[in-house]
Amino acid sequence: xxxxxxxxxxxxxxxxxxxxxxxxxxxxxxxxxxxxxxxxxxxxxxxxxxxxxxxxxxxxxxxxxxxxxxxxxxxxxxxxxxxxxxxxxxxxxxxxxxxxxxxxxxxxxxxxxxxxxxxxxxxxxxxxxxxxxxxxxxxxxxxxxxxxxxxxxxxxxxxxxxxxxxxxxxxxxxxxxxxxxxxxxxxxxxxxxxxxxxxxxxxxxxxxxxxxxxxxxxxxxxxxxxxxxxxxxxxxxxxxxxxxxxxxxxxxxxxxxxxxxxxxxxxxxxxxxxxxxxxxxxxxxxxxxxxxxxxxxxxxxxxxxxxxxxxxxxxxxxxxxxxxxxxxxxxxxxxxxxxxxxxxxxxxxxxxxxxxxxxxxxxxxxxxxxxxxxxxxxxxxxxxxxxxxxxxxxxxxxxxxxxxxxxxxxxxxxxxxxxxxxxxxxxxxxxxxxxxxxxxxxxxxxxxxxxxxxxxxxxxxxxxxxxxxxxxxxxxxxxxxxxxxxxxxxxxxxxxxxxxxxxxxxxxxxxxxxxxxxxxxxxxxxxxxxxxxxxxxxxxxxxxxxxxxxxxxxxxxxxxxxxxxxxxxxxxxxxxxxxxxxxxxxxxxxxxxxxxxxxxxxxxxxxxxxxxxxxxxxxxxxxxxxxxxxxxxxxxxxxxxxxxxxxxxxxxxxxxxxxxxxxxxxxxxxxxxxxxxxxxxxxxxxxxxxxxxxxxxxxxxxxxxxxxxxxxxxxxxxxxxxxxxxxxxxxxxxxxxxxxxxxxxxxxxxxxxxxxxxxxxxxxxxxxxxxxxxxxxxxxxxxxxxxxxxxxxxxxxxxxxxxxxxxxxxxxxxxxxxxxxxxxxxxxxx
Length: 830
Fold this sequence. Notes:
alpha/beta, 20-stranded parallel beta sheet, 26 strands, disordered N terminus
């Protein structure tokens, strides 16, 4: 359908387009521009699927641009994201003619050319660097000049820009030299070494550089450091081949002036730490591996004086004894000289806990003094103290006891507190928790969640934004009437959580949503496991169960009308008097309605353990689920639709779903939650049986996920057939997919390629199934050869889940993707 705008070119020029009647002379009278914008140099060839005009329209969101052959005009309605063939734009008068009729708009409507430079700079600030520098600058002289404004080039971030190839990165680095002061290339694993080394050409004014996850040889790193004399913050990876002695004198001088260092140690080494004596913030990520070979390092190399001025010390360990040994060597100098002012102390260790360091008491004492200074700062109107959000405490569970934690909290409360995996918690409500914004208590309190304790925590920290209680059981006492009474008096955990109006992310155990009472003592969830599971309240009567038919492929299992009405009422927010689960579902709905800012929700079984490994073999057996969790089914899932603002949802370790019953509630959920961008489903079974795959439910629900970017599915017997790949193809915004199926298969390679062709943004495909090693290698090779040219960040990993060499295949996956989606873990208050 064609579109024309009538007006006078001179008037458009007077409004700021500098008399550019056509695009032919828009860029400095360039000869190549006379042939059309498509004839520009090859700097943007790796993103040639969109024209420059369309890129401007796609990224200047909310401006109301209509870009066509003749220039730029502004319509008052929403942004035109595509160019109609044959359209001509001659002015911004506001009169548009269509084939179907003529629409006249208000002539006084403000257009893009009427906006001041300040307003345009605010708009351009939200456009990604590759589009700003390589596409928007080609529209006209004015936008070309504004796109080179120093306020837009001061901070350049390519992190997460997976469509930027080597050629585009070279052009961007060439455009920003002499202006950039902060450069972020974190996680750009696909960029080649020479391209990343090209940052040395724009290092004169650099003060912050993040190269974590990038491939950078020691020679290019030395040239970068030698030219960045004003550098204050550095992030990098220490990989095999690193030699500290190869750095020049100028590079060593730059390291001496660093105030913040974050390095990922992939080999046993101190990295550049011995050359950084003025650090105030040190963050370490230890990913050495399984073997302890070569970890015997000299303690003196870590240079004891380097720690004395630290205000932040963070160490995140990967699994394996080598990382625990390396951490002990890094903490050894702390026993000689005490840190003067510490505000953040974060040590995270999966698996077996590392040995308790001798300097732990001094570290906690220094942290308490830092918290006391923040506590003395005046609070603002929202109860926030000066700099309070920068304080944090996280230690392995065996390192802390009630007395040590009490001494720290008595001086002040940090903004981030992580006591997961065995840390003490009974003393928390006895202190002032108003500064607290993030709290992680996974597996604490003896794995039991007490309502009175939670009530004290909610009352003490009303401004809490992130809360993780996954792994903590709650088994309510009494029947549905008792639960309804708890809901009305807000003594049920879900009713208590509804008071946290600032809550943004929440993780809970599935048994908290339990709908019935099993008349079993709740002081030990292990004692309830031998008891045979009773039918859930939404199960059909025994008389009607005999009318059921065996489930058929592609057919939704019959359910009695009463069962259908249960989840329909829950999705609509209604309650029925005849429903015995009305009490708890009302509590769940109350929590969803009360937490108005909630956008990330995780409901994980307390005993759930993912099958995906890190450095060990895959988990073959799943621990029995909590008996109370077996009574949480489709009604709870349908109730989640009451919070349409959810953007990230995780459902794992559910044992109360009926055969074929997940489809309608999941479809209702995906239809109402339009902003859902991340979805993770793992081990959704029925009464401890692992045969249901819920494939039909996925086929029905996925086409409604128009904004879905990340999808992770872990089901033991999931078969990825053609209808499922077609449903995935409907998710046009899909970027990352990870499927884990111990006994399943990935189907035909033709269907997978067809899906990837429809999903233009998809760059990650990780499949761990029960197929043979030969079939997996052939598929991985075929997908890599087909899409690696057009998708520079492509990451394909197809491998048998139960193969003995799976851990070697996992080691080749970039850490960014491995931590974000491939490995299952809770991402609430991590």
